[in-house]
Please model this.
Amino acid sequence: MNGLALHERLPAHPPPDHLPSRRHFVPPLPSASWRVALPHSAAAVPVARALVRSALAELEHGADSDTAELLTAELVANAVEHTAGDAPIELVLELLPTACQVEVHDPDPAPPGDLTQPDDGPPDPWQEHGRGLLLIRTLSASCGHRPTESGKAVWFRLPAVPRQWRPRPA
Model:
């Protein structure tokens, strides 16, 4: 899915008693978001992974942490490798009641290769590069990119997973 994803949030408080929808009100699950500037260097990758891991560990409903970390590392590494200059890149993590969305903002307005339009055929097994966007397309529930005022944002979304279904830490 390309473009900006819109999220509808439920009201924080139930409607007054005199409204008929009170009996159907379900309080929203907690949501949270983080926006962090990262250096335009390879050092940004482990920092981004740690931020995602820490954020997901704090919530009762989060996404699969291992997958979120892997895909975040791919997005950050691509932003560092494929954009010129030393302007910081930005990691935006939004945890919603039903999903986790990660965006990486960079200053280059060019779309990210074959993120939504895959090349024909499997990747060359002898090449070091070329699998990151395939991983993002394959492992995420949805992914895409959108223009921003200063470049672009590349994103992926993972569904929320109840804590009891998540793999246990080793």
In short: The radius of gyration is 18 Å. The chain is about 25% helix and 25% strand. Residues 1-15, 18-23 have pLDDT under 50 and may be disordered. The CA atoms of residues 117 and 137 lie 10 Å apart.
